[in-house]
Amino acid sequence: MTTEITRPDPYLLTAIAPDRAHLPTLDGLRAISIALVVLMHFGSEVPGAPPVPGLFGVEIFFAISGFLITRLLLAEILETGTLSLPNFYFRRALRLTPALAAFVLAASLFMAWHGARDLRASACAILYITNYCVTEVGVMYDGPGGVLEGTWSLGVEEHFYLMFPLVLLVFFRRDIRATYAAVAAICLTALAFRLGYAATDRPENFLVWRSESAFDLMMGGCALSIMSAHEAGRRALARVATTAFLGGATLVFIAGQVLAGYGKIGLALSQATVGLWLAVLIASLLLNPEMGGVRAVLNRPVMNWLGRISYSLYLWHAFVALADHQYHFLSGYAGVALGLGLSLALATASYTWLEQPILRRRSRWARKLGLGVKPARTAANSTP
Fold it and tell me: Is residue 12 part of a domain?
């Protein structure tokens, strides 16, 4: 009779106390989110292809960002007793802006080459205000500039980066209960904005694209990191990261999706269930021993790779869509496969030859500016 030896799950965490450690499982979750976004855009070119919930892919990005960014911010506060906003904004700028600037420049040149003279869409994208340009003045809807609409989510994230560090700086050092109250207030405010826009019959993108309407999608992830920063919160996390709790949250999420089919008020209410479910999912993926099979899939090399280049892929697949606007090659399954290949090639090139070299020099540049920025590898998966 032999005894079966169970190998420990290397990706199961015993705690997620705020630190800068890399969490590869979340790279795998990002791979799923970017796949949903890209397949939604390219799959629409295949007649009869089933619809893909690309918006849900973006919402996964939001939840992961809320969790990881808060985790990094709290790690700094717990280590130093304060938070350097210049350091944080410097890190965010070097992580996000180079790839965005290269993408917007390439898209602008392509559009100008093919006769487009209205580059307001490009200006909105590089200023991280696409979500407001579209909802307020609609400058992105006509012509090839419409493919830049995808940068709306970058606007939401950038506005979150500007707002939430200030919330932590004001409330976390004072009292943990005040911090939870601030998070709850942000969630309720976002819901109030969505309901207000729904009640006044604004377009649906007002409910999901505008920053004030979408911040609560990040707050569930933020709350997870805050819970991990004190003992009572960690005990609560252990209760949240269970299969039973995930099952209950899933039922709430499904009910929310059903509710979304009942007009704009239903959609406004349903969004509140998305952030909740994603927060519970993230906790379970990191802490629940029963999720080992899912973690094994998420930590496959191809999933981790897709997760690492997900931000680049999010940008550059839109450039491929822009080229298709002119040359119409994304037709049928062969065209979609070509589009995916081109997108992956552009994203990999951007990540390898533009983004990573800049991040490797980040500490050196920070020292010259008098900023004590941590090495790039310590925050490897802190961004979308």
Answer: no
The 10s digit of each residue's pLDDT in 162-199 is 999 999 999 987 889 999 999 999 999 999 999 999 99
User: Whole domain around residue 306: which residue ranges?
Assistant: 24-364
232 within some domain = yes
CB neighbourhood size of 238 (10 A): 15
What would the pLDDT profile of 45-64 be if each residue is shown by its tens digit? Answer: 777 778 889 999 999 999 99
| Overall domain count for the chain | 1
Residue linked to tokens 């009640």: 199
Q: Note whether residue 381 is domain-resident.
A: no
* Closest CA relative to residue 157, chosen from 37, 58, 264, 259: 58
Residue of 45 and 378 predicted with greater confidence:
45
Residues near 88 by beta carbon (within 8 Å), at least 6 away in sequence: 73, 76, 161, 165
Task: Give the C-alpha separation, 46 to 335, whole Å.
Answer: 9
Q: Has residue 66 got a pLDDT over 70?
A: yes
Residues 241 and 289: their CA atoms lie apart, in Å, by: 9
Residue 378 falls inside a structural domain: no
CA distances from 223 to 20, 56, 60, 241, 256 (A): 17, 20, 15, 14, 21
CB 77 within 8 A of CB 168: yes
